[in-house]
């Protein structure tokens, strides 16, 4: 299975902000849409990723209002990325190695979507369920030994 398979099932809704967006607005966007990350876009290119990890870290260190904090000052400027053709086993390794929950998917420099650890886990479970169903059907239809 490839990342493109997950994107096809997930759809193409994508939430983004610019580095100049104030953090307060970005947090409200994440809360309103029940999402754990937003991509940070500048001049049509991915320049970072804002996840709840950066938000929580900022909240722990900024006791003043968040209206003066910009997304660009707290975002992950070097997010781990993959392509639509990246194999799901490789994606799982990458996400586990870097403790990453959200992965932008780029084809050349074009942002195709974002997949989450949940999306990957769901795809693996769905594939295993399908395989189990097929194996059970195969065992049920096992041909009888004609020599008996």
The amount of helix comes to 40-55%
Q: What is the H-and-E element order?
A: HEHEEHHHEEH
Question: Over all CA atoms, what is the radius of gyration?
Answer: 20 Å
CATH architecture assignment: Roll
CATH fold topology? CBS-domain
Secondary-structure-based class equals alpha+beta
What does this entry look like structurally?
The protein is of the alpha+beta class and 148 residues long. The chain has one domain: CBS-domain, CATH 3.10.580. Helices cover 45% and strands 19% of the residues. The chain contains six helices and five strands, in the order H-E-H-E-E-H-H-H-E-E-H. The chain has helices at 3-10, 23-32, 52-61, 71-74, 88-98, 117-140; strands at 16-17, 37-42, 45-51, 102-107, 110-116. The protein has a three-stranded mixed beta sheet with strand order 1-2-3. The longest helix has 24 residues, at 117-140. The radius of gyration is 20 Å and the shape is elongated. The protein starts with a helix and ends in an 8-residue tail after the last helix.
Features:
alpha+beta, three-stranded mixed sheet, 5 strands, 19% strand
How are the secondary structure elements laid out?
Blueprint: H1 3-10, E1 16-17, H2 23-32, E2 37-42, E3 45-51, H3 52-61, H4 71-74, H5 88-98, E4 102-107, E5 110-116, H6 117-140
Parallel strand pairs: 1-2
Antiparallel strand pairs: 2-3, 4-5
Can you summarize this structure?
With 148 residues, this protein is of the alpha+beta class. It is 45% helix and 19% strand.
């Amino acid at each position: 299975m490839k990342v493109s398979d997950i994107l096809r099932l997930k759809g193409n809704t994508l939430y983004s902000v610019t580095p100049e967006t104030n953090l307060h607005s970005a947090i409200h966007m994440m809360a309103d849409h029940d999402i754990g990350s937003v991509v940070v876009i500048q001049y049509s290119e991915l320049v970072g990723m804002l996840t709840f990890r950066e938000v929580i870290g900022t909240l722990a260190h900024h006791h003043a209002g968040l209206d003066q904090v910009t997304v660009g000052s707290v975002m992950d400027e070097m997010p781990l990325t993959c392509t639509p053709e990246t194999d799901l086993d490789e994606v799982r390794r990458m996400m586990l190695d870097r403790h990453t929950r959200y992965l932008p998917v780029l084809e050349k420099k074009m942002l195709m979507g974002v997949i989450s650890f949940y999306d990957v886990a769901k795809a693996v479970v769905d594939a295993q369920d399908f395989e189990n169903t097929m194996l059970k059907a195969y065992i049920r239809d096992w041909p009888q030994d004609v020599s008996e």
